[in-house]
Design brief:
Layout lengths: L21 H21 L5 H12 L6 H8 L3 H6 L2
């Protein structure tokens, strides 16, 4: 969805204290909502069995990933442009 070319026809009406601009209010509100959303992805509860499985997965040696290793050996798009 591109909003660059869309005409602005919606308006936001809010009242706030004189110490805070509308932009500051909107930014604070967005940051608060983002923190709430991210909290759902940072905090999770596990029972004892799930915790043990989680810890075992963290302690296990990494699996070989040949495709990823090949990718890291290739020059990046920026390196290709700098050194044609």
């Amino acid at each position: 969805m591109s909003i660059k070319n869309e005409p602005r026809n919606e308006r936001i009406d809010i009242r706030t204290t004189s110490s805070k601009t509308v932009s500051e209010f909107l930014l604070d509100s967005a940051l608060t909502k983002a923190a709430e959303v991210m909290a759902d992805r940072r905090l999770f509860l596990l029972n004892d069995e799930q915790w043990d499985a989680f810890m075992a997965a963290l302690d296990a040696p990494p699996q070989p990933m040949p495709r990823l290793e090949r990718l890291f050996k290739e020059p990046s798009a920026l390196e290709k442009e700098l050194n044609p």
